[in-house]
Design goal:
Radius of gyration: 17 Å
Oligomer: single chain
CATH architecture of the largest domain: 3-Layer(aba) Sandwich
Distance between the termini: 34 Å
Order of helices and strands: HEHEHEEHEHHHE
Strand order of the largest sheet: 3-2-1-4-5-6
CATH class of the largest domain: Alpha Beta
Largest sheet: 6 strands, mixed
CATH superfamily of the largest domain: Vaccinia Virus protein VP39
Number of helices: 7
């Protein structure tokens, strides 16, 4: 779903270089590779995720992207290296997402796109009814996880205004918060001249378009 939305956003753009910041197993990068994008970079601190990614790319006969082991808050990659920077479900794990957003801004080309879906922690009642309606099996998985160490993974519940404020302070202009149903299709998209900020209901997307003189 998120990968399809990213593809729709970039398919008519003249973007050639892409970076999945906090890539994990690189599922989204593999999706882009499947559709012919070749200048792909994955950045993550966990080397084991890269091993899984290599296996998957080889299995589907796709070219293996560049893989850089680095902290997403300080990658040491040359500035303005990418036309598009993306990740899915990363920012909500940081108590302070500012360093990651600042590093993303630094790495983005003068005209580029940042695409970051966020899945904040949700009240149990809300999560329960969503799973019951759309994915009943996940209810069982959630019960199992609640009794395991995996449940200790940090996940914040910051509101949209929190991320918007940080992005504005970093230097993005014309930031807009646009409702989106992460289960359905993109219901609203406003093309702005400068920067874009898409925020999901029940999962926030930060989508920033950078244009600098």
């Amino acid at each position: 779903m998120y990968s399809e939305d990213l593809l729709n956003l970039i398919k008519n753009k003249n973007y050639s270089s892409f970076c999945e910041l906090g890539a994990g197993r690189g599922t989204t990068t593999m999706y882009l590779a499947k559709y012919g994008y070749s200048d792909l970079t994955m950045v993550d601190l966990a080397e084991q995720g890269f091993e899984v990614a290599k296996y998957s790319f080889e299995k589907f006969k796709l070219s293996i992207p560049k893989m850089i082991i680095a902290d997403v808050e300080k990658t040491n990659i040359k500035e303005e290296s990418f036309d598009c920077i993306y990740n899915i479900g990363l920012l909500e794990h940081f108590d302070d997402p500012r360093p990651t957003l600042e590093e993303s801004y630094r790495l983005l080309n003068k005209v580029g796109l940042i695409y970051m879906p966020i899945v904040p922690v949700q009240p149990q009642y809300k999560s329960f009814f969503q799973r019951l309606m759309f994915n009943p099996l996940s209810l069982i998985k959630n019960i199992i996880r609640s009794k395991s160490k995996e449940n200790n993974i940090n996940r914040t519940d910051y509101p949209r205004s929190f991320y918007a404020k940080i992005c504005k302070e970093i230097g993005y202009k014309n930031i807009k918060c646009i409702p989106y149903n992460h289960i359905g299709k993109l219901i609203m998209m406003v093309q702005l001249r400068t920067n874009l900020l898409f925020l999901f209901i029940n999962g926030i997307i930060i989508l920033l378009k950078k244009e600098r003189l």
